[in-house]
Design goal:
- It is a single chain.
- The chain has about 625 residues and is an alpha/beta fold.
- Helices cover about 25% and strands about 15% of the residues.
- Helix 2 crosses helix 3.
- The chain is globular, with a radius of gyration of 24 Å.
């Protein structure tokens, strides 16, 4: 039983409810701050800790005790009936940089959450953190994505919160092939679009009960699926947050999970299950790509714009068809071409916006190229793709569906899009209401992201411009693209930076964001380094005993489409010696594929009896 695509009246789906099980793809990032100006003479090579970000809001103390929150009734909140299960004071010291009231509870029916409400340092700001993969866990981070060195986060100025998107994971990270939770229609809706809004409603009410007033400013920060959640909020609920930071978003989720990721998990395997391109050859491939396409103006062997790279895998063809570790067979070169092209239908139609970016090759191992001795079921994208095709992307599960090349057609894509894009996808380019409410949005993406190719982010920006006009978009939106950075962090490039501080300044003081300093670091402990921070699961706290990483070099990154170049003098490792420039020929970020980024596709759903789901295209 599949719902039709075009309709204005309500319709009913009957779906049996089952136990909840989900897997989560961990995402996160640890980053450094920016005090750089293109005209500045001062060198910027370390984290700023002066805390001078945004308005100088006064410290607000609680009006009730932490334990008193247990006596408050939050059960009548509109579409967010909430119960508080625990409220305990966590003392400053050791792993905790400040004292806070730790609140845990549930928004009906089963959106589990945690809030951290500072008791001595709160300055009227709330930060809601996104969750990665299919989520299913709560892990509030003391260093959320793209905020390394952002003092208001680390010094206790913010109240922090995160939720599990309405279901519980028991199957680990990365997404699994048996997402049984998704047979429950309400849990589909909560994961799709409702959980973040419902929790935001609850979090503000709890904050008001504790401090006597709702936050003056509310922010959202998410990467990967957390990035999708961010865009979902500003598109569907433009009044929930004052400003939002969106990283590497899985916003085109139906096409990403059902088509792109599922497809990539098939391209490196023969019919008998044997591997075509071994992981041992990825370093040779990556070195060849960098040799061909690295931008000498960056002085760090990184590709500044992968879209301009013209690498041909045939350049590594084995001589006389003799296979060796330093070359590619014709069959292996074909796998590489398929990876760069992305998923296409038999007629050549692209089923997603872009393929693997040049420079991402070293990160393919374990993602869709198996590690030595392992098979298809071991690669991360196999579990994510099959989990969507069988469970998350269907109102009635198909546990026996097989993942093979016959699935990747325009008809299959359209069928999944008709079924679930209305609740999962966050591709609406019309953010007029968010803009009119004074909202500010900063989006960022690593240019060598192998999980969610950055092309889609550029295409979405272009769709916003086509819909709203360049001037309006420039008034509230900026995009930053980071050379050599993988999915939400990691990679060869500088992946430590602070965009959250820029967002706060822009929203609260009107300071338009310019260059951000990105640092390449090594060593250090605690959540402040690459791969730390917002991971979508696991408790991460600032630690008084954490050691700062060593900064190897810094580079400025300017809002897209500006690039940077060494100015010819001074330390090549220092961001202060690089200038911004605009390419003579700007890229055309329109992209022809089977879908589109338009408005009006969203569905709004409600469960009346716990067993049936009624959905409409009209927002209630």
């Amino acid at each position: 039983m599949s719902p039709g695509h075009a309709h204005s009246s309500k319709r009913t789906r009957i779906v049996l409810l089952v136990a909840v099980v989900v897997a989560a793809l961990v995402t996160g990032l640890a980053l450094l701050p920016d005090t750089f100006s293109a005209d500045a003479d001062a060198r910027v090579t370390k984290v700023s800790t002066d805390g001078d970000v945004g308005k100088n809001l006064p410290v607000t103390k609680p009006e009730i005790s932490c334990a008193d929150l247990l006596q408050k009734d939050f059960g009548t909140l509109d579409d967010a009936a909430t119960s508080v299960a625990s409220a305990t004071v966590v003392a400053k010291g050791g792993a905790n940089a400040y004292e806070y009231c730790d609140v845990k509870g549930t928004v009906a029916p089963q959106i589990q959450f945690e809030q951290r409400l500072p008791t001595q340092t709160y300055r009227q700001r709330y930060l809601q953190e996104g969750c990665g993969g299919y989520c299913g866990m709560v892990g509030v981070s003391a260093q959320p994505a793209a905020s390394t060195g952002c003092a208001p986060v680390t010094d206790g100025s913010f109240a922090l919160g995160q939720d599990n998107q309405g279901h519980v994971s028991t199957s680990g990270t990365g997404g699994g092939s048996a997402e049984v939770w998704a047979t429950n229609p309400q849990l589909k809706v909560d994961f799709g679009y409702r959980s973040e809004h419902a929790f935001a409603t609850a979090a503000k009410a709890i904050t008001k009960a504790f401090y006597g007033a709702e936050p003056t400013y509310s922010y959202y920060d998410g990467c990967s699926d957390g990035g999708r959640e961010t865009l979902m909020e500003v598109q569907r609920y433009p009044g929930d947050f004052s400003a939002a930071l969106v990283g590497a978003p899985a916003f085109n989720q139906t096409a990403l999970n059902a088509m792109q990721e599922a497809y990539l998990s098939t391209i490196d395997f023969r019919a008998d299950g044997s591997t075509i391109l071994p992981a041992s050859k990825l370093s040779t491939l990556h070195e060849a790509v960098i040799a061909k396409c690295a931008d000498p103006k960056l002085n760090n062997d990184l590709i500044q714009d992968p879209a301009t790279c013209a690498f041909d895998p045939a350049s590594l063809k084995c001589a006389d068809s003799k296979d060796s570790s330093s070359c590619l067979t014709a069959e292996q070169a074909d796998v590489v071409r398929k990876a760069y092209a992305g998923v296409t239908a038999p007629d050549g139609t692209h089923l997603y916006t872009g393929g693997q970016p040049y420079g991402s090759e070293a990160a393919w191992e374990g993602l869709f190229v198996p590690k030595a001795g392992q098979g298809q079921s071991s690669v991360q994208l196999y579990g994510i793709g099959l989990g969507f095709l069988r469970w998350v992307g269907k109102w009635e599960a198909d546990p026996t569906l097989k993942l093979d090349g016959a699935l990747f057609t325009v008809d299959t894509f359209k069928a999944y899009q008709r079924d679930v894009s209305g609740i999962y996808d966050a591709t609406d380019p019309d953010l007029t209401k968010f803009h009119e409410a004074g909202g500010r949005l900063i989006q960022w993406h690593g240019l060598t992201d192998p999980n969610i190719p950055p092309t889609g982010t550029r295409v979405y920006r272009q769709a916003m411009i086509d819909t709203m006009g360049q001037d309006k978009v420039d008034d509230f939106y900026r995009l930053y693209l980071f050379p050599g950075v993988n999915h939400c962090g990691g990679g060869d490039g500088p992946d430590s930076f602070d965009l959250l501080g820029k967002l706060i300044d822009w929203r609260e003081t009107g300071k338009v964001p310019g260059a951000v300093i990105a640092s390449k670091t090594s060593g250090g402990t605690g959540p402040g380094g690459p791969a730390g921070g917002q991971l979508g699961g696991g408790d991460t706290k600032a630690s008084a005993s954490s050691s700062a990483p060593t900064v190897e070099y810094t580079r400025p990154v300017h809002p897209y489409p500006q690039l940077v170049a060494y100015d010819g003098s001074g330390d090549k490792k220092d961001a202060a010696n690089y200038r911004a420039y605009t390419p003579d020929k700007l890229p055309d970020d329109h992209y022809k594929w089977a879908g589109s980024f338009t408005s009006g596709y969203q569905e709004w759903c409600d469960t009346q009896d716990g067993r049936s789901m009624s959905c409409t295209r009209h927002k209630p």
